[in-house]
Amino acid sequence: MPAPIKTAILGTGIGVHHLHWPLLKSLPSYFEVTTILERKQTGVAKALTGGTVKVVATLDEVINSDVELIIVATSDDTHFEIIKKILNAGKQHVLGEKPLTYHAAQSAELQELAKAKGRVLGVFQSRRFDGDYLTAKKLIENNTLGSVTSYEVFYSFYRPASVAFEGAAPPEGDVHWKDNPALNRGNIYTIGAHTIDQIYTLFGMPDKILGRTWSVRGNGVQDSFEATFIYPPRPGTHIPLCARATTNLMSPVDPQLRFVVKATKGAYVKYYEDNQWYALQRGEANADTYGTEIKEHWGTATLVQPDGSFKNEVIPTERGDYRQVYRELASAIWANDPSKNSVQVSSVIQATELIELAHKSAKEDRYMFKGKDY
Questions:
Q1: Helices (H), the chain
Q2: Count of Cβ atoms closer than 10 Å to residue 268 Cβ
Q3: CATH number of the domain located at residue range(s) 128-319+354-368 in this protein
Q4: Which residues, 6+ apart, have CB-to-CB distance to 14 below 8 Å?
Q5: Architecture field, domain 5-124
Q6: What does pTM read for this prediction?
Q7: Within 13 Å, how many C-alpha atoms sit on residue 46's CB side?
Q8: For residue range 318-364, what is the model confidence (pLDDT) as tens digits?
Q9: Rounded to 5 degrees, what are φ and ψ at 228?
Q10: N or C: which end of the chain has fewer CB within 10 A?
Q11: Is 117 helix (H, G, I), strand (E, B) or coil?
C-alpha cells in the first residue's frame, strides 16, 4: 500500500467533528491529517485534534503546503469558489462535502476543471452507504418486493424555532449559516443532497417533478420540503412509479419513519435513522459493530403469499460504512483514476439538477416536465 495521503480539512463545523475527523483518523493507512483551516482561530481545531495538527487561517496556506488532498467542509455556499481555486492551483486533489455546489452547471465546471488539471474530485455522498438505504436498494434490485410503484424516503425531525440549531446555540450575536437565508438555499439542498441523490441513484431521471418547500423556523430558510418524482411504470405493472423525498422539521414522531417502499408483491417499512453518525460521536469507527444496527431497529417486509395473504418478515439491515467513501477516494488518488470512486461527479451533477428542478417547481407551483423543462 502506498504512503498515507497527507490531508487538510477546511472548516471546524459539526460535520468535521462527527464525520471527517473521526473517519480519517480511523483509516491511518490511507490518510494522515496534517492541517486544519480555522478562519477565526478560536481554538476549536486544537481542541478537536489535541494539538496534533497544524492549524492555519487562510486557504492560501493550505494550497501552498505539501498536502495532497483537501477536504472542503465549509458552508455550502462557499464550495464552488473554494474548490475552483484549489483545482486552478493544480496541486491538490479535492473531496467536496455535499452539496458539491448549489448548481449542476457549477459542478460540471468543477468536474471539467479537475479533469483538465489531472486531479481527482470526489464528493462526500456518505448516505449512499447508509445501511437502511442499502437494504431498500437490495430489496428493489433483487425483486424481492416485485415491481416498485411507490418509494418514499423520510429524513425528518422535531425541531421548532425554540430549539437551537443542531443542539447548540451559536455565540451571542452570531447566526449559524444554516439559519441564514442569504447563505442557505434550504434543506431541499442540504438534506435533499442525500435523499434525492439516493432516488436518482436508484431510478435515474424522472418524467415529471413536483416540489414544495416551506419554513418551519420562521427565519426565511426553507427548512422543510417534499420532492416528488414520477417515472414510467416498471416492468410488471401499469402504475407509474412515484418516488418522494420528504424532510419536515415539525415531525413529532417517535420513532421517525425512514423508508416506505410499495410494490406488486410486497412492501418494506423502516423506522430509525442509520446510526453511523452517533457511532462516530462515540469513537466507534473501528469497532466490530460499526455500521450495524440492533435488531429492534430493523425494518419489516410485508410479502404477498400465493393465496393472497400477507406475511411479515423482519429484514436485517445491511451493514453501512461511510469509510468506503474514503477508501475509494484513496484508491482513486493513488492511481490518479477518478473511476475508482463509486460516487461519480457525473451522477452528483444529475442529482443536483433534480434538486434544482424540484426547487424551481416549488417556486413556480407547477410540475416540471421532461422534454419541456429539462
A1: 14-15, 21-25, 44-49, 59-63, 79-89, 104-117, 131-141, 187-190, 192-203, 276-281, 323-335, 345-364
A2: 25
A3: 3.30.360.10
A4: 166
A5: 3-Layer(aba) Sandwich (3.40)
A6: 0.94
A7: 9
A8: 999 999 999 999 999 999 999 999 999 999 999 999 999 999 999 99
A9: -115, 135
A10: N
A11: helix
